[in-house]
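Weekly structure sync, notes
Attendees: PL (lead), two postdocs, one rotation student
Agenda item 3: pending single-chain targets
PL asked that the sequence for the first pending target be pasted directly into the notes so everyone works from the same version. It is reproduced below exactly as submitted, 323 residues in total.
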Amino acid sequence: MGGLSIGILVDSPLKQQYLGNMVVQAGHKIGFSYVLKINALLPSLEQQMDAWVVDVNEPDEGEDHREQKAAIVALIDGLLEQTQVPVIVNDATELTQGSAEYNDWVRRMLQRLERLDGDVNLQAGSVASEVWVLAASTGGPAAVKDFLKQLPPKLKVAFVYVQHIGSGQAETLVKMMSSAGHYPVTIAQQGSVLTNSSITLVTANCSVNIHDNGTLVVTKNPWGGCYSPSIDQVTANVARVYRQHSGLIIFSGMGDDGAASSRLIKQQGGKVWVQTPEQCTIASMPDAAIAAGTVSFIGTPSELADALAKLKSTKHFKHETRY
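Predicted structure, written out during the meeting:
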């Protein structure tokens, strides 16, 4: 079983059942589960968990159990203070399964549990402060490969590569792009973190959303609209999160995917560049962005790489539009 190992600490069997079901539904496994009760032994919390879920109300059984109540509170406080892993502290009442309150609680808890992968991964690496989307369709892989060949190493930027391609070709594309230059390519996964000098490949298999902290949520939900994966959907998400620290480069491709979201990038202060249409295998995607009036630089893949390197190394660098 994959996923994180989650510890569950609650004060009722009903909460234990609810939370245990949600942990599994979110793709994790239950590493430890315990119901705290008055007149029962307290557990040792030395188990190595990836994260904890705690839902314990302070006991109110009266003065006779003052010492046990204090011990339970001290146990939970110690966990919160000493653990180095994420802890979700919940405060649920005994909910009736199927009620509106229960359904809302399930939705919120599932969202928090789904974000745990990203919370854990963030502790292992720093999130990038600038993200550029590399968008392509027909003829795109060759162009993106040439772009990566020319790109110098260690640019402080994360790339999200959205390529219209069959789902069965993703692994081949990863190998092709990883060998092209200095930037390793990985397929987008639940909880992945957008870090500097990395390329995250978005495939047709799963829809991808980006949290404000730079972590990914990957689901089996279908992509909206005509294209799969959707350049517009990914780019709009990047523009919302990274604003003026976002960019979009549209390479060779058929259709107009990316044109609509290029307006959002520009509105947020980001940059929109495209491959020279005459140099594309199919120029529909670059042409659509140019027609939208959002493009500030046009060049061959090598020229685009040189321009990005210069942009990152020269603080006051400004590019004029080239046609």
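Discussion points:
- Residues 131-313 form a domain with the Rossmann fold fold (CATH 3.40.50.180).
- Residues 315-323 have pLDDT under 50 and may be disordered.
Action: rotation student to compare against the earlier draft before next sync.
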